Amino acid sequence: MTRPFASMVQRWVALVFLVVVWEFAARSAGTVYFPPPTKIAQTGFELWFTGPSRNLFLTQTWFDDILPSLARALGGWAIAAVIGIALGTALGRSRTGMDYVGPLFGFMRAIPPVTLIPVFLVLFGIYTEMKLATIVFGTVWPVLMNTVDGVRSVDPLQAETARAFRTPRHRWIFAVVLPAAMPKIFAGLRLSLSIALLLMVVSELVGRSSGLGYQLIFAQRQFDFAIMWAWIVFLGFLGYGLNSLLLIVERRVLAWQPSRHTERAMQVGG
Predict the structure, then answer these.
(1) Cα separations (Å) of 217 from 71, 195, 227, 237?
(2) Confidence of residue 128 (pLDDT cuts 50, 70, 90)
(3) Cβ atoms 89, 173 nearer than 8 A
(4) In terms of Cα–Cα distance, which of 189, 169, 172, 196 is closest to 253?
(5) Residue boundaries of the structural domains of the chain
C-alpha cells in the first residue's frame, strides 16, 4: 500500500469514526438542535435530489440557490485573483512601490470585509454587484501579498542573466518571475478561496430571497435545524471539493519544480 493511499484511508476512517460517534451522541441526547447525521443526509437528499426539478437529478434549489451562489463566489475569487496577481507582480518588481502603498494596504487589510457590507449596499444596492464587491475586497489581499513575496523571491542570478541577455521585460515576467512566484501565489489562492465562500454566505444574509446564505438563515429562523445542518454540511463539502480541485491544478502547474519531483519519488518509494 503506497503512502498517499494509506494516508487517505486513515483520514476517511477517522471521518467515518467521528460521524458514527456523532450519530450515537445525537440519538442519545435526543435534542432537535443537533440532529443525527442520518437525518441530515436524508434531509439533504430530499432537498437537493427530489421534488420539482429541471432535469432528472437536480431539484430547483440548485438553479435558484446553489449555482448562483457558486457563480458569485468563484466570480469574485477570479476577479480578486487577476487583480492580486497583476498588482502584486507590479509592486513586487518595483523597488519603492510597497514603500508608498504598504501602510495603506496594511490599513485596508485590517478592515473586516463584513463591516463594509453597509457601504457596498449604499453603492450597489442589494444586487449581485454588492456581493461581488464584498468577496473581491476580502479575497484580494492574500493573493496580492503572496504575489509580492513570491515575485521578490526570484533568484538574483536569474535577474542578472536576463539583463545580460537583454531579455524583453514581458518575456522575463511570464517566463521567469511568475513561474518562480507560483508556489506562493497558489498558497494565496487557496486561502482566498475559503474566504470567498465565507463572504459569499455572509453577503447573502442581507436583503436576499435566494442563495446559500439566505437558505441557511431562513432554515434557522424557521427552526428547521435538519435543513440548517444540511446546508452547513453542504458548504463543508463544497469548500473541501473546491480546495481539492485547486490542489490538483497546483500540482500540475508546479510539476516542473525539483521539489515536486522529489516528493513524488518519495511517495512512490514509500
Answers:
(1) 20, 19, 10, 19
(2) confident
(3) yes
(4) 189
(5) 72-261
Q: Say which residues have a Cβ less than 8 Å from residue 207's Cβ, sequence separation at least 6.
A: 121, 126
Within 13 Å and on the Cβ side, how many CA atoms surround 7? 5
Helices marked H in 35-110: 37-49, 60-61, 67-93, 97-109
Joined together, the cell numbers standing for residue 267 give 511517495
Tell me the CA distances in angstroms from 77 to 5, 141, 186, 197, 198, one per residue in order: 31, 11, 13, 9, 11
Distance CA 251, CA 247 (A): 6
Could you tell me the three cell numbers for 219? 432554515
Q: pLDDT, tens digit, for every residue of 165-181? A: 666 767 777 777 888 88
What string of DSSP letters covers 61-80?
HIIIIIHHHHHHHHHHHHHH
The closest alpha carbon to 235, from 20, 115, 70, belongs to 70
Please tell me whether residue 166 adopts helix, strand or coil conformation: coil
40 touches 229 (CB < 8 A): yes
C-alpha span between 220 and 223 (Å, rounded): 5
Per residue in 191-218, pLDDT tens?
999 999 999 999 988 866 788 999 999 9
For the chain, the helix, strand and coil percentages under 3-state DSSP, each to the nearest 5: 80, 0, 20
Fold annotation for 72-261: MetI-like fold (1.10.3720)
